[in-house]
Amino acid sequence: MAVKIKLMRLGKIRQPYYRVVVADARTRRNGRDIETIGKYHPKNEPSLIEIDSERAQYWLGVGAQPTETVQSLLKVTGDWQKFHGLPGAEGTLKPQPEKVDKLARFQQALAEANEEPSTAATTPKKKGGSPERVGKTADAAPAAAATKEDDVAEATKDADKPAAESTES
Length: 169
What we know:
Blueprint: E1 3-12, E2 15-24, E3 35-41, E4 48-51, H1 53-61, E5 65-66, H2 68-77, H3 79-84, H4 102-115, H5 131-160, H6 163-168
Parallel strand pairs: 1-5
Antiparallel strand pairs: 1-2, 2-3, 3-4
């Protein structure tokens, strides 16, 4: 029986992730596997590659053939070089950033919010709040109304007089 080390696709459309599995070469891509030896998340930044090195070495030792993609993943982790006795067995795998606990992030945000100085409201207060403002608006309104009334009264006086009288005076 020919054994392959290949990827089993999981995930949603445009969000794939894979399991690195050991399976019979005749099975489908997502068919039955013999053993799962790792996982691969290509969409993460940097890509997440976790392969059980001991199990990968065992399966390579008993003759399992990796696919091209799995072989490149094994080179990144350093398992391929270790199996063949080549230099560079440490691989070029980039470490994943450490995840910050949600509770710790919440506590930090809460501390930052408490340290900020509180400022006054940016919206103006309602009318009638200060006596100075009320006095100014009350005095200004009748003066404006009086000037409008005077203009109207003068215009009506001119309209009442005949045109001849207005030109004689």
